[in-house]
Design brief:
By secondary structure, the chain is α+β, with helices and mostly antiparallel strands. Helix 9 packs antiparallel against helix 10, helix 10 runs antiparallel to helix 11 and helix 15 packs antiparallel against helix 16.
Length: about 475
């Protein structure tokens, strides 16, 4: 356990960044006050480093936390809406911009796409006014434009007429409801090639329930996924299985290692795997949880090459810092938050639980069980707050669904390469039955998520405390066991 919870400066930097990003950035501190606070703390730490050598490590950790705190506030401010229209928002009737992501079909058949603004316009029967604009805006296109958006894909420049309106629940944020769409400029060649590959895969899965699930698990394309199946996964507390994340990337990494390591060796296979993972992320598109997993994989490769310590919690912390610097807006997405919290729960809580039950439960069952419990405990409060309930059955359902999903992903790759999909149809029915059975289990209402948060923290602290006492007693008894 100690290897997972070892205190490192980068861990404290991540804690400070999280506090600054999610909490203190909401307070009305002026930049001058923040600067003075950081300056005073840094001066005090420099004196402590010079005068008290024994406090050197503590001082470095506190300094890292302060720097992370400042970084978190800066990243939070950088991730705020930066929409600049150049015209009064109430008068805008048309926009022009570049599609930033692949179109996503939502309820009702409409299409949602984030767009990088280039120009806005006010157009009526008598005249028109255009202005240069900037920033990111979410655009909702009519259902009949779905095929056209898919065909041109990410990177295409479009012009649309419609209505600009305030986004609900987000002050100062605007969204655009489009009535028409005109493609002004096709996407760059690399993006068109990528879109072509995705379209061929989507076409291959057309009309197949199991094919739609295969695309959801491999590419994150959920447009044709059975909505009833997705709802059952949510009620079963297993919706994380459908969202591309570390589990899916781990399957791909395992396949890469299996194919390349015998011929290339560990280091060369890791580098080749990193290249493949980058190409895979480019094909899939920006997804916060998948980006977190890919970034950790790349940092793991750097650790294998000897440039970073092989400490999982330090790699997770460094990944968090890098990701909020590169994509600060993604830091507020639910998938980003739950992804980092779940993995932190596996390291901080799952590992102690594993140590406590080692030898009492078969290892093949204990490893996924302890990981699921750790992830569930640390995310229970936030999950209850967002969804209004928690589903503990997801811990047990995951023990069955995760291995089945892993097999499903491997068979899906075989199907895409060979066209042989008969085992997928059979496995799809098994997974549908399992998740349907789990979905029927009553969930726990979270009308007061704060209470759930307190309980989950108390249970987590108890597990960590028991594990530490267990380790101390084991160390005392070891001399007598020899």
């Amino acid at each position: 356990m100690t290897s997972y919870l070892r205190a490192t400066p980068v861990f404290f930097a991540a804690i400070g960044a999280a506090i600054g990003f999610y909490f203190l950035s909401l307070l009305s501190f002026t930049p001058l006050i923040i600067f003075l606070f950081i300056a005073v703390v840094c001066v005090m730490l420099c004196f402590s480093l010079a005068l008290f050598y024994r406090l050197k490590f503590v001082s470095i950790c506190v300094l890292a936390a302060v720097c992370g705190f400042a970084l978190g506030i800066s990243a939070a401010n950088a991730g705020l809406s930066n929409q600049r229209f150049g015209l009064l928002p109430e008068k805008i009737t048309a926009i022009e911009g570049v599609l930033l992501e692949d179109p996503r079909i939502i309820s009702g058949g409409n299409v949602m796409v984030p767009v990088s603004l280039k120009r806005c316009a006010f157009i009526n029967s008598s005249n028109s006014v255009r202005a240069t604009s900037s920033g990111r805006i979410t655009v909702f296109f009519p259902a009949q434009s779905a095929d056209k958006l898919r065909e041109f894909g990410r990177g295409a420049s479009v012009f649309s007429e419609g209505t600009l309106r305030p986004a609900s629940g987000t002050e100062g944020e605007w969204i655009f409801s489009a009535d028409t769409i005109f493609v002004v400029k096709p996407a760059p060649p690399v993006e068109r090639m990528r879109t072509g590959v995705r379209l061929k895969l989507i076409e291959k899965a057309d009309g197949k329930e199991w094919g739609a699930l295969a695309l959801a698990l491999l590419l994150g394309v959920r447009d044709n996924l059975d909505s009833n199946l997705a709802e059952m996964y949510r009620k079963a507390g297993s919706s994380y299985i459908l969202a591309l994340s570390g589990m899916h990337l781990a399957v791909l990494a395992a396949i890469i290692a299996f194919l390349l390591r015998p011929a290339l060796g560990l280091k060369a296979a890791s580098i080749a795997g990193a290249v493949i993972i980058c190409l895979y992320c480019f094909l899939v598109g920006p997804m916060p949880s998948l980006n977190r997993a890919a970034l950790m994989y790349l940092l793991g490769v750097v650790a294998i090459l000897g440039f970073l310590p092989k400490q999982p919690m330090a790699i997770l912390s460094l990944s968090f810092l890098i990701q909020i610097i590169i994509t600060p807006a993604a830091g507020h997405s639910i998938s980003f938050i739950l992804s980092y919290l779940a993995l932190a729960g596996i390291f901080i809580i799952g590992q102690p639980l594993y140590e406590l039950l080692a030898g009492k439960v078969p290892d093949f069952l204990l490893q996924p069980l302890s990981a699921s419990c750790g992830a569930f405990l640390i995310t229970a409060g936030i999950t209850g707050y967002i969804f209004g309930y928690i589903a503990p059955i997801g811990i047990l359902a995951g023990l069955i669904l995760v291995p089945l999903t892993t097999l499903y992903m491997i068979l899906s790759l075989v199907w895409l390469l060979t066209g042989f999909g008969l085992p997928l149809a059979f496995l799809y029915r098994i997974m549908e039955w399992v998740v349907g059975l789990a979905a029927k289990t009553p969930a726990v209402s979270a009308e007061q998520p704060f209470i759930i948060l307190i309980i989950s923290i108390a249970v987590s602290v108890l597990l960590i405390t028991l594990e530490r006492k267990f380790c101390k007693n084991r160390l005392k008894l070891e001399p007598f066991l020899w």
